Amino acid sequence: MNKKGLILGCSLGLLMGCDSQMDNSVTSQNTALQSEIAELITRSKSDMVFIEGGEFMMGDFGPLDKEKTGGLYYGIGDYGVRTIHKVRLKSYSLSRYQITFHDYLLYRKSKGLGNPYPIEHITAENRQDGFNSKFENKKWLKISTNTPESPRQSETPAFLPWEAAQEYCQWLGEQTGLPYSLPTEAQWEYAARNRGQFVLYPTDNGLFEPGRNVPSDEQQQQRSRLGGIDSFPVGSFPATPLGLYDMGYNKFEWVNDWFDPDYYSHSPEANPQGPAEAVFTDGYGGTGFSKVVRGYEYPTDLQMTFSRTKHKLWLEYTPEVFDGFYYVTARCAINSERPVN
Prior knowledge:
The chain is of the alpha+beta class. The protein has a single domain, classed as paralog of FGE (formylglycine-generating enzyme) (Alpha-Beta Complex). The protein contains eight helices and eleven strands. The strands form three sheets. Strands 6, 7, 8, 9 and 10 form a five-stranded mixed sheet that branches. A four-stranded antiparallel sheet has the order 1-4-11-5. α1 (3-46) crosses α3. The N and C termini lie far apart (67 Å). Residues 3-16 and 119-134 have low confidence and may be disordered.
């Protein structure tokens, strides 16, 4: 073999060796990703709490809880909750935890999606609103990435548009063959009230005890200094008697229902799903078409198990890029009358 042929042969050998190393690296990365996804799927099923169906009176139950209130409302009368109405639910399962950044970003990785707040994305509308995409991108990264100071940062609840939360739950359904979705508003309240009992606060004992079963102001301030936001890793405080964590005091939670302030007055008794169509509303949470959110942005004793509010949807949602920064999270449900586990 002449000198030129020898060089060419060596070059081809090196290239083939490089290609082989690259293929092995890609295969290793894919295998690792598939392993992580398999672990997530298994864990999502094991984290489901089976909730036996039943009948309860939904809404501000103060007049029914006469021993404590003398027949008076508890005073949280916003958005129609004083319209107490009978609801009958089938059995279902509800996740004991909110969707975390770790799990949501793993889902995005499995779909070939990156950071939903890319630095270069600044729309004309966002400029007018003073929205700083670079700032929001850094915030997303800061509150979703583990640090030495906050090693469980990625286990904090993920902040998502309603559509993104629903897509995540539906993806779990595709992976498992189970009917995953966001819970209905009635399912959320029934679970928060320990299967419809007269429970004021969705805590381990039904009482509001900052620093023990909900975060105190001091704990929130300390948490904010560490992680950049005052939400806590899921499961940081005691579970409810049903085994559910952070029901109501670790940011708002999306549910499946469209928001209508008058819905309780004509809600069906059996398994209500919310209004069939979106209702245009004005006021807190934005003007437009909104979904119901339950829980609250921070712990307060004014936020009770039956309290409800709304959050409007963005009209131009895409899974690739989010046009607004949300402080709303979610948890998934499985609409099956038999336990998953």
